[in-house]
Amino acid sequence: MGRNTAATVPDTAPDAEDVLLARRGRAAHLTLNRPRALNALTHAMVRRIDEALTAWEHDPAVATVVVTGAGERGLCAGGDIRAIHEDARSGGTASAEFWRDEYRLNARIARWPKPYVAVMDGIVMGGGVGISAHGNVRIVTERSRVAMPETGIGFVPDVGGTYLLSRAPGELGTHLALTGTPVGAADAILCGLADYYVPSPEIPVLLAELSTSPVREALPHHTHQPPPPGVLTTHRDWIDHCYAADTVEEIVDRLLATGIQEAKETAETILTKSPTSLKVTLRAMRRARELPTLERVLEQEYRISCAALTSPDLVEGIRAQVVDKDREPRWSPRSLGEVGEGMVERFFTDSGGRGCLFT
């Protein structure tokens, strides 16, 4: 079995049990363990994950890292947005410090030198995408619901989400970024957010095999079934046409002009999101396409996220969706036409070295 390197990871923090570490043969297991909060990430969890990866990277007895979520609902619903809400309301800096470490962890996962098996079962949103979709072995199931829903809370896709979505086929990524629509297994694979489909009943068997077998040998035994059909392929024509527009306003106009019911419903969905977030997201996606590396995109996202802390829409969006749950956010500005160029550009301005995550 080899020595248990999990014991070398500091566990003195009171919330250390929010991330469970274990060794099973040649595989090291990392389990997000806040099921009542749908395994939402805290700063302490991010640090603990990073410490575990440091220990396992240099342990020759660890051949594979496996990431799962506790409970039945999903891997991870994202960051702890209640904490972000309180921080933004009070004008604090805790969220910026959290994002700095989280985004660095996202980049580290993308460069991880060993198989990093992310089991994207159930709900995988926001920060959950960040700790899974940058891995090199990304597994979805028939239960998977993968999304970057940030525009609905007055935020912008982060954790490398604009990097991943900007590299999806055609304009599918733009569609997902603006609407926050969750996708299932087939569409997650199509968009480059996942690699393999494994039916959920087979996941425990696969993980047991990884304790004794390399990923390349164990995985093919469980990937022989096709995923349930997706929906994005059937909508590619109108998605690619409409989202190729230069502005959010024109995207909405094109969607409404198609005469297609699904496109009309999509336009209506977009118009419920934060107007400022929509415009910043579209610009972030277009710029991300031109940036050469994940690290450069994460630096752009960090600037945007820090700017969002001082935007009224972040506090209001979380209030409406998570705190009060009235689902009636009062955005400021209230319409796309009121969001001026200067208001968008301020999200991309590096103030106080906020863009220097990797230098």
TrEMBL record:
<dbReference type="InterPro" id="IPR032259">
    <property type="entry name" value="HIBYL-CoA-H"/>
</dbReference>
<dbReference type="InterPro" id="IPR029045">
    <property type="entry name" value="ClpP/crotonase-like_dom_sf"/>
</dbReference>
<keyword id="KW-0378">Hydrolase</keyword>
<protein>
    <recommendedName>
        <fullName>3-hydroxyisobutyryl-CoA hydrolase</fullName>
        <ecNumber>3.1.2.4</ecNumber>
    </recommendedName>
</protein>
<feature type="domain" description="Enoyl-CoA hydratase/isomerase">
    <location>
        <begin position="28"/>
        <end position="348"/>
    </location>
</feature>
<dbReference type="Pfam" id="PF16113">
    <property type="entry name" value="ECH_2"/>
</dbReference>
<dbReference type="InterPro" id="IPR045004">
    <property type="entry name" value="ECH_dom"/>
</dbReference>
